[in-house]
Design brief:
This protein is of the alpha+beta class. Helix content is 36%, strand content 26%. It is globular and about 65 Å long.
């Protein structure tokens, strides 16, 4: 039997080989959405990604018979370890062929690297921050993935179980139907939003141009709201000011203002925020994960010309002190009319922790099904 050889990624060509392995492994899978080469290179840039101010990482490739058969990033998030009082080595961007010798070699490499740096446990798949894709798919293998989540083959969790990994937590994803006008449940929902607005002095901040976002500092305020909203959730790594500015620069510039919702209190403080965008899954498949030479056309077409009927509901956050005051109802009362006007019929919800009952409950007003489940695993090392 051929030996599995693990090598550290060294240089830009190795890094591109690391990224392309995912596209090669899933090129014939109708449910997978390829990594975006340019975006992933930015994420892995020690110079440009602010996460490396508090993360140290190493990239590894697995070879067998002279070809790449697996990949993984091992990293230590110092801020998260301090916040959660753990000595954890995290891992992410893990892919491998259906060969347990390969997956075992990759996980052994993560464990060895973690022990070398004084860690006592390993867990993942996680990202450098919670804005990166996280969680291994364990249900919903026949459902189309999204640009912001992980797709993996059904044999992945089997390999992990055989290796001795244990469940740490699960996320669920819902597929929702947008409510039609005159829906009784929706009418009650909008009445609640009106009551919350009057009782707590909440209002929707609408933007006429993206220039207003930058001039009013709403780029920073948006991600600051996400920071506060997610602070107590599993393993959350608080974003620094530099990270928030960077994410705003990379993502908010492409958001349709009609699909961005900002809720403020009477003092003008942002207490809730949400951002959605048309599904780019099919466009990314056509682009094969590359912006050039013609990937940009598929992306622009999906954003502005011929939109998919499914909307990716990427980020929704409400600061803790307003989570019981109906702020989220204002978000949907603001967004749903715009969503229907733009022709969207379905919504794909970003992964939510299975024990986040408050967050999961906001979808009760919609017809919905849990169609995907993903898992973070752990093991003492």
């Amino acid at each position: 039997m051929s030996e599995v050889l693990i090598q550290k990624v060294n240089g830009k060509q190795d890094l591109k080989r690391f990224i392309r392995f995912n596209a090669e492994l899933y090129k014939d899978c109708p449910w997978a959405v390829p990594d975006f080469m340019e975006d992933t290179l930015e994420t892995f840039s020690l110079k440009n990604n602010a996460a490396f101010e508090f993360c140290r990482a190493e990239w590894f490739l697995a070879y067998k018979d002279g070809r790449v058969v697996g990949r993984v990033v091992a990293f230590i998030n110092e801020r998260a370890n301090a916040r959660w009082k753990r000595k954890s080595v995290r891992f992410g961007w893990i892919d491998f062929i259906d060969d347990e010798a390969v997956s075992r070699a990759l996980l052994d490499t993560v464990a060895d690297w973690g022990r070398e740096h004084g860690m006592t446990e390993m867990h993942g798949p996680l990202g450098f921050t919670d804005m990166d894709p996280e969680g291994m798919l364990i249900e919903g293998f026949d459902q189309l993935s999204t640009i912001s989540t992980i797709y993996n083959y059904p044999y992945y969790p089997v390999h992990f179980e055989h290796y001795g990994m244990q469940k740490e937590t699960d996320w669920v994803q819902r597929h929702i139907a947008m409510p039609s006008k005159g829906n009784a449940g929706w009418e009650r929902y909008t009445r609640v939003a009106s009551m919350a607005s009057k009782r707590y002095g909440l209002s929707v901040h609408r933007f006429k141009s993206k220039k207003e976002i930058w001039e009013g500092g709403y780029d920073f305020k948006f991600f600051e709201t996400i920071n506060k909203s997610y602070a107590s959730l599993f393993g959350y790594s608080e974003m620094t000011d530099r990270q928030m500015r960077s994410y705003a620069e990379r993502y908010l510039r492409f958001v349709d203002l009609r699909l961005l919702s900002i809720i403020e209190n009477s003092k003008g403080e942002v207490v809730a925020a949400a951002a959605c965008m048309p599904s780019l899954s099919r466009a990314m498949q056509k682009a094969k994960g590359r912006l050039f030479p013609w990937g940009w056309w598929h992306i622009l077409k999906a954003l502005y010309i011929k939109r998919d009927e499914t909307l990716d509901m990427l980020l929704i956050g409400v600061v803790p002190e307003y989570q019981d005051k109906g702020a989220v109802t204002l978000i949907f009362a603001d967004l749903i009319p715009q969503i229907l006007k733009l022709g969207f019929k379905w919504g794909e919800i970003h992964p939510q922790l299975e024990d986040n009952t408050r967050g999961l409950g906001i979808w009760d007003v919609f017809e919905n099904t849990i169609h995907k489940r993903r898992r973070a695993w752990k093991k003492m090392i």
